[in-house]
Amino acid sequence: MTQDAFIQQLRHELRSLPKHVVDEIVADYREYIGDALAAGRSEAEVIAALGDPVKLARELRAQASFRQWETRRSFGNLLRVVVSIAGLGLVQLILLVPFIFYLTLLTCAYVISAAMLVAGLATVVLLGSHHAFGWPSVDRIPFSFQGSSQGGDSEQGDDSEAGDNAPNHREGADASMLKHVNVPDFRVDGDRFVLRPQSGTHMSVVTTAGTVELRNEGGKLRVTSTGAAPAQFDVKGDVWTIHRTDVVALDVRTAGGDTLSAARMGGGSGDMAWDVKSDKDHVSFVEGGKDGPMLAVHSEGDSVVIDKNHVAIDSDGDHVLIVGPHGSSIGALLYGVAMLVGGALGLWLCLWLTRLTWRGLVRYVRHHAERIAQRLETGAP
Hints:
By secondary structure, the chain is α+β, with helices and mostly antiparallel strands. The protein has eight helices and 17 strands. Helix 1 packs across helix 4, helix 5 packs antiparallel against helix 6 and helix 5 crosses helix 8.
């Protein structure tokens, strides 16, 4: 190979480097070849001593990348040196593949840990602020909507919001349900229960002081009681009134087959479970309680069920289900704390691995850069 052919191929292989760098390298090798020829060596001998211009260009590119990294020590420049060195031999190139796979996993770990940290921090801040200051309000909650009919049509939607007054509507439904049920022997008047037994009606009331049974037989009211229960009632004629906080359980059965039952739940006087049957209608609902309000209405083939997590409506084969979030905000807060801690630990582990990787790469690059410099010094300037 002639001098011009060697220089031309070397310049071609170094085309990825900046032009001024290539010009400096070519000038150095022309000077080296010229000095060797002046010393009496033949052109073929000098070119043979320099070796394959393709391999020489690879070593020069690796050396140039190493110098660029020393000037600006960034992770990207370090990776360029590693790739340049790996290009010098097949074994090093094979080892580069698992290293790239490791870097991909490390990057994914960074993304996942950062996402967990941000999600956990947002959850803790929002729910912590809600519990501490009442803001933001959780009355507006996302729910999913599902609908189906006999025809098989269905639709789903997400990211809707319940109205601000949804809880108030539910409380209003609880308070007014009995007004729409045809049980004239019983009604709710504010915080008091009003009992007016009609003919054939049997009422049994368990109070905090005893029990009272009222029977209307042929227009005559018969009263049976235990303890001091009668003293808790305000009696005017055939109308008996009692404060709801004094009632533990209530059972009403009319001559027409209508029934009404109520029982206190837990320790709260306002927490009661109701069950009303009138003709073909059946209503049951819960006021208060640890699981929140619940309402179920059944009328012939139609039904509506509402609780704190979902609303289900069935009518003539059509079905609508609205599902809200499950679990308590305290549980979500604990999940948020767990994500926050997990994300922080994940980021710390990723940073520790990155530090070890950086140190290992620097040692690897320095070792091979020194070997490349020694080979270049033995055959060329």
